[in-house]
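Thread: quick sanity check before group meeting

JM: Hey all, I'm pulling together slides for Thursday and realized we never actually wrote out the predicted structure for the chain we discussed last week. Dropping the sequence here so it's in one place. If anyone has concerns about the input, flag it before I start.
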Amino acid sequence: MVKIILDAGFVYLSFVFAYYIRFTLQAGIFPNETVRFRNYFETLILIVVLWLAVFKLIGLYDEKKSQDIIDELAVLLMSVLTAAFALFGFLFLYRGLWFSRLVIIDAAVLSFIFLALERILALFFKRWLSGLGVGSKRILIIGAEEIGQTLALKLKMDRTLGGAPICFLDDDPEKKDKSFHCVPVVGGLSRINEIIKDKRIDEIIFATTELPYQKILDVITECEVLSVSFKIVPGILEIIASRVNIEEVGGIPLITITEIGLTGYKAFLKRLLDFISSSLLLLFLSPIFLIVMILVRLDSKGPIFFAQDRVGKDGRIFKMYKFRSMVEGADELIPQLEKLSETEGHIFKIKEDPRITQIGKWLRRLSVDEWPQLYNVFIGDMSLVGPRPPLPREVEKYSPWHKKRLRIAPGITGLWQVSGRSLLPFEDMVRLDIYYIENWSLWLDVKILFRTIPVVFTASGAY
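JM (edit): ok, ran it. Output follows.
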């Protein structure tokens, strides 16, 4: 309720400031007859109510959804844009209400700034309270595998997620009495009732796909009895649940799975936005491209750009372009270094790769080496958001279900990149890619792009 009241006040102030900006600062650029502020004041209450109603419909005040600050700012941006368009539509239909379009545009910009600052300040306040242990859930993670370890690390690094990992439970005897990111493994599932009570656990997260469903149901039943909430990291069947239909044949229920949703007008819309966005970004970033090209040329011998065969949509091979960040002939050294790879599965990565040049370290750290892929997006080989484009030798080792990630165009960024990048094992990367394909929406792309910004600047999981 407090957030809604604050939002109402800031939206109101945004329109007040927008009025003065329109008829003072912008009066010389867009001359028009000055309208008395009283004419605006009489309609502002109605407009504020309209905007708050749109915010509610978009989900800005949905407390049931766990969102970090990037997600919330993305929802806020969509809410403000939708509210502005709704007001434009209302004015178009009801011509008796006169209102400057420039005031609406200025108010939309100011509203986003004010409401974003409000949420950022609330974030710091929440982080300060979390540091004092106020309002933070005590979380038990079941499964100390890679995904559970990554989850524990993220919870410890970002206190605004609202939870503190207390301990792991894992039946693997090799993990007993070990700690991961300072979170101990205190035993197996047989101790769950004891641990919940002794550690005062508020929430349990199932971070493993190895448990049988019967065991999970048993634990969930215990959680309900002890009033402990629970969450589950989904497996493949849960990920594709949105495409499951049930039909009957002779009275026997059968499950059918429909085609992926990224087809038809959705695919056209995604491609249109990719084309427009990549065109504008290539134009805007061209001066930086020139500087980077000069630095790469001065730093080491070899071409400025690195072109490599990658596997795109439906297994089609294409040339992916990057700024060269390694010594010339780096691919030829892979057989000698393959045993040093620090990722599981079919991906070759080394944190301290000896092939990387001096300027290449900075290019990779800030992901600037990936920028030429905007050209791949422009010509349609890639998308701004999508699964990571694999190498042909990686695809040769894929299991059949891994190839599902090749159903759409690969992206410069994606769920994998904003969820841990090289910190995540290959199998979890594939699950994230399949989740993205199964649940694609324009809104999901917007959120991923928002989340990419801090990942790039903090170089989280990049090597």
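AS: nice. The longest strand covers residues 163-169. The CA atoms of residues 291 and 297 lie 10 Å apart.
JM: adding both to the slides.
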